[in-house]
Amino acid sequence: MSHSSRSSRLVRLIALAAAGALALAACNGGDSGGGGGGTAKGTCPVDALDKAGEPVEITLWHSMNRANEEVLAKLVDEYQAQQPKVKVQLINQTSYQDTFEKFKAGLSSGDLPDLVQIEDTGTQQMIDTQAITPVQACIDADGYKTSDYLTRVLDYYTVEDTLWPMPFNVSNPVLYYDENAFTAAGLDPEDPPKTLDEVTTYAERIKAAGYEYGYGLKLDPWWIEQESAKGGVTFVNNGNGRDARATKATFDNEVGQQVFAWMDAMVDDGLAVTNSADGPSAVNNLLAIRSKKVGMTVDTSAALGTISQVLSSGEGGGVKLGVGPMPGPTGKGGVLVGGAALYISAKSSAAKQAAAWDLAKFLTSSQSQAIWAAGTGYVPIRESAAESQVIEELWVREPGYKVAYDQLVTGVENVATAGPVIGPYQAIRDVVLAAEQRMFTQGTSSDDALTDAQRAANEALAEYNERIGA
Amino acid sequence: MRASGPAPPKAGKSKARRVIGKVVRYGLLTLLAAVVLFPLYITVVNSLLRPDQIAARPPKFFPFDPQWDAYSRAWDGGHMSRYLVNSVIVTVAITAGQVVTAILAAYAFAFLEFPLKRTLFAVFLATLMVPFEVTIITNLTTARNLGLLNSYAGLAVPFLATGFGAFLLRQAFLQVPSDLQDAAALDGYGHWRFLARVAVPLARPTVAALSVFAFLGAWNQYLWPLLITEDDEYRTVQIGLEQLSRTSIDQLNVTFAGVVIAALPLVILLLVFQKQLVRGLTAGAVKG
């Protein structure tokens, strides 16, 4: 640049001031999100809706894709028809991540919804916003019965004995496989692999039958968390972050080592091909079955509805989709609850909070959950919904849907299967993914990769806890 | 590009060799063009295939049985029609605003003398060094207090002025020979007439480049429109694309159709302004 030294010094000064302002803003953000952890349990003004003179208008931010949004809109329409006191505005904020970002931006600007759908990983951060009315407070104030809700699902969203959001859409990972590939390899399509060792054996046979790979390995850290839970071990300390805020990661354990060593061997031996879990290429993992590159893979049960028709349709399809429980350690644990849940904003007026609670109750009523599960492929979160006629018919027609429900409810109930509650969830997923990639591309041993990941995860936890002042 | 100025043929060099050279050069350019255009081509092809055909291996490179309904589904079901209108309104407003304010500011910094001129210019430049993400929360609060949430004004107003544009045009204006200024002054031109008749016409390539730059930037915005809008009425194509890209695997073709719809205005813009763009990029590259 060509101005005098005086003005360029000024430029630097201003840049410095800007940096200072940024640091200040960051501090403020931290303060408002920090504080006493889970001590502020809040109250829920459940009576405020009855007292409201005119219809209460509330907004619901969600992140459902178009097909699922249609089902949600139908449920909301039904709700409005039977509850004239509430007017619901349904707003699609595109992705889970963007919804969360917009919610966090709203904490400063005041542009907040009354009810918001947040991804499973957001629990600790939502608690830390201190802007949430825990659903538990509403349940207690309303005398609402939750015995019909699946215990596993309630456990997942319960931290320090408080149920924070209302669980809504639940999914978990299942094994997808091509029955024709199994037949070609001389394997029984009715008997999918149950352990990781069996997956190896099956993959060898499928590869020997002429497939490029036996197994599609989606590089999704979610799956490592799932295998930890299935092996009955915790992912972070302090009771998986449920008795007190997590301070250390614990995933560098026997199960974690087994899983990492298994992945390393599968890729090294050419039995598995890795697929990105990021962005639009995330569907490649399932499409690999369609293109007969692999014979099986693990992916979310939420994808079942749409892929089954793509995979088995069209010319030269020739794929017969089978669905089985996620393979992994057996006997000690179970799969985690995935999906998203509904949080009530404490910043809303009493009448709006009461209306949001009323809507949350409706959306998780037995009948709504049956319609929701049948229309979207999510797991119904109430026993009575699972026993309803519409779901029973669905499960007869598409037995794959039942797999996700069965493996969820048959899981052991313990602190490991309740799932980890982590503030810096994304940061920890990033370090786990980076460790996997180092293992595959740089030849780092599986034990070293896992140890490195745990160290980096501990740093992320310490940094987060320090930032929010816990 | 090199192709624009081939060396004059030397005497004695055979015609055949020149032809071969030309063929090789064009062959190479064609290959490079194909590499650049292929992603665009395959996007269009995929938008016309059935979802199961997109997944097929080997991949299909030509839609023998084009399925045009993906476009109508993106247009209506994906709300791309509404989003496109919003994007056009907001982008045109931002582009016009940036060009006008940049021209006026650059004119002042280039041709006028006033106290603290250097300091003020430094402040202008300093705004370039603060990324938009830093000010986003403050801007959001301001917009909310002004009642601009969920409106075209909220989408466009924060971007009507740009330090970058002022800087770019000031440099262009400084190239205007001072003789012209003197001549214009003798002819009795005031500031406005000099600006409109001399300065801007001489800096036209730069103005065009700034327009395209502003247009691209505004068109591709994502975070701000997402934060400031509440519903489909004011949302822009990029948000629509994000929504489409999260549709399920059985609607991949609709996503591709949405991408084509969102990219079309930019392609048209580039075709129309091609000449100015190339001139703008090379302006000042060679100093006489």
Commentary on this structure:
The complex is a heterodimer of chains A (470) and B (288). By secondary structure, chain A is of the alpha/beta class. Chain A has two domains: 183 residues, 3-Layer(aba) Sandwich (D-Maltodextrin-Binding Protein, domain 2); 210 residues, Periplasmic binding protein-like II (D-Maltodextrin-Binding Protein, domain 2). In chain A, the strands form three sheets. In chain A, strands 1, 2, 3, 4, 7 and 13 form a six-stranded mixed sheet that branches. In chain B, 33% of the residues are buried. The radius of gyration of chain B is 24 Å and the shape is flat. In chain B, helix 4 crosses helix 13 and helix 5 packs across helix 8. The model of chain B has no long low-confidence stretch (mean pLDDT 86). Chain B has 288 residues and is an all-alpha fold. Helix content of chain B is 71%, strand content 0%. Chain B has two domains: 66 residues, no CATH class; 211 residues, MetI-like fold, CATH 1.10.3720. At the A-B interface, helix 1, strand 2, helix 4, helix 13 and helix 14 of A face helix 2, helix 5, helix 6, helix 12 and helix 13 of B.
